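lol forgot to send this yesterday, sorry. struct tokens for the thing we talked abt
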């Protein structure tokens, strides 16, 4: 971070740094960053400026928030969180992202590293065949337009009804895998055409399907409750979203919102923050379309999980039930939802939401872009790079008081995909990972190079920041054994 930014930040409590709203004319609330001192110093200036821009949006409550994995994005920083008053606030597609409900899912097994490692090549190859990857990839599920609209409404439950999952799965998904306000009529025909054949596909970019081993257990009691029983246990992590469907929904409404802002006398510091009042017809229509895309993503991860269970059952000659391939949790990032929180009652305290005195309950529209929900006793899945590993954490009451129930979603990039490809060839990276005991298969070597471990922040430092600020606490860490990527 540039020294001019860094010198203005004050640590208001351990692990939480504020840039006061007096820093720049137009800021309605402070910019608040969850970080260690090291991560704060390394935060890129573009992301910080985006956080300042978000603080200027109408109806924002509390603070413009950035998680320790934050980096530059479209409109909002990736790793950005903002809550808006339902009467005076706005909805911004740039605050949600184009891959609506990109999210994480974690499955357990009762297998050990010793049992899985000799078969990891077979497992990864069969997963690669079972779950289509890459840009524009199509799945084997063919839907009519009516069936696809049912997916938009029912989400993960649609897949379970079709035998592509277990009935108890939905109990372990954020919102039980379906946001109720979804309306397929708010979705364009072009978005439907892009998404109708992509159910059960992984996509490209940083999306992955990874076979992992439990490396460290930090809280055995919590880990036991979640089915994480011992070191060396094998789990499977899925990271993907709504694919081209969500991207088109975001594009459609951004194109609508930008010219329509004049109608509501809204001025934004960056055109990528184009937005509409939450209560406006345009805002309500976008929210209904966004919810439809989010439900599609929940269903997409459900179908992929079913395919994972089938592959493991085939490789090991046992049923997925016998292998205890239970769903730990499925958590969304890139989403906006109406949620309830306690905030200070007096205007003089409105920028210090961590204070518990003189509070009132409010409903706000929380934007989480590259950020996960972190409610007390709710699992949080923190995806790392394919070389370094990932974490399972637990949400906290601290997050409810400090970050509108939010935490990080991963390790966060330190360089662009273009720069990463300049630094390493995909073929060389694949060979290097194989030497380190990680078998990876990708739709393209170019896409593989983009996701090299050095292109990401130190996930251990990110977890330290989260635990220090008490926005989530570590339960277990995982190391990769095998990975498929787009």
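and heres what i got for the seq, position by position
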């Amino acid at each position: 971070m540039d020294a001019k930014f860094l010198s203005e930040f004050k640590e208001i409590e351990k692990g939480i740094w504020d840039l006061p709203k007096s820093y720049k004319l137009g800021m309605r609330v402070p910019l608040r960053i969850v970080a260690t001192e090291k991560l704060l110093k390394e935060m890129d200036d573009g992301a910080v400026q985006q956080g300042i821009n978000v603080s200027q949006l109408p109806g924002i409550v509390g603070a413009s928030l950035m998680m320790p994995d934050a980096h530059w994005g479209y409109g909002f920083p990736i790793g950005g969180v903002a809550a808006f008053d339902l009467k005076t606030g706005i909805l911004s597609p740039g605050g949600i992202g184009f891959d609506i409900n990109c999210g994480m899912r974690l499955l357990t097994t009762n297998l050990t590293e010793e049992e899985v490692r000799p078969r990891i090549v077979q497992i990864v190859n069969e997963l690669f065949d079972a779950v289509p990857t890459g840009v524009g990839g199509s799945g084997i599920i063919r839907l009519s337009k009516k069936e696809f609209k049912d997916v938009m409404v029912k989400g993960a439950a649609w897949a379970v009804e079709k035998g592509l999952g277990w009935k108890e799965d939905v109990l372990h998904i954020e919102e039980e895998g379906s946001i109720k306000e979804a309306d397929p009529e708010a979705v364009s025909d072009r978005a439907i055409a892009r998404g109708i054949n992509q159910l059960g596909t992984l996509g490209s970019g940083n999306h992955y399907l990874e076979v992992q081993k439990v490396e460290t257990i930090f809280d055995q009691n919590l880990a036991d409750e979640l089915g994480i029983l011992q070191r060396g246990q094998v789990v499977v992590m899925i990271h993907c979203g709504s694919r081209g469907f969500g991207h088109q929904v975001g594009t459609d409404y951004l194109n609508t919102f930008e010219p329509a802002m004049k109608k509501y006398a809204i001025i934004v510091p960056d055109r990528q923050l184009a937005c509409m009042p939450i209560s406006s017809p345009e805002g309500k229509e976008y929210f209904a379309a966004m919810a439809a895309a989010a439900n599609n993503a929940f269903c997409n991860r459900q179908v992929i999980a079913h395919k994972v269970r089938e592959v493991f059952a085939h490789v090991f000659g046992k049923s997925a039930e016998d292998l205890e391939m239970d769903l730990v949790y499925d958590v969304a990032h890139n989403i906006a939802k109406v949620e309830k929180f306690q905030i200070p009652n007096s205007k003089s305290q409105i920028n210090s939401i961590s204070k518990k005195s003189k509070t009132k309950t409010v409903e706000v529209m929380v934007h989480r872009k590259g950020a996960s929900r972190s409610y007390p006793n709710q699992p949080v899945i923190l995806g790392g790079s394919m070389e370094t590993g990932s974490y399972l954490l637990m949400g906290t009451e601290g997050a409810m008081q400090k970050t509108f129930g939010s935490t990080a979603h991963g390790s966060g990039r330190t360089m662009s995909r273009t720069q990463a490809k300049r630094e390493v060839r995909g073929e060389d990276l694949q060979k290097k990972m194989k030497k380190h005991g990680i078998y990876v298969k990708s739709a393209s070597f170019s896409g593989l190079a983009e996701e090299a471990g050095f292109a990401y922040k130190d996930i251990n430092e990110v977890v330290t920041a989260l635990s220090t600020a008490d926005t989530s606490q570590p339960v277990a860490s995982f190391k990769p054994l095998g990975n498929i990527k787009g």
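Residues 281-316 form the longest helix (36 residues). anyway ping me if u want another try
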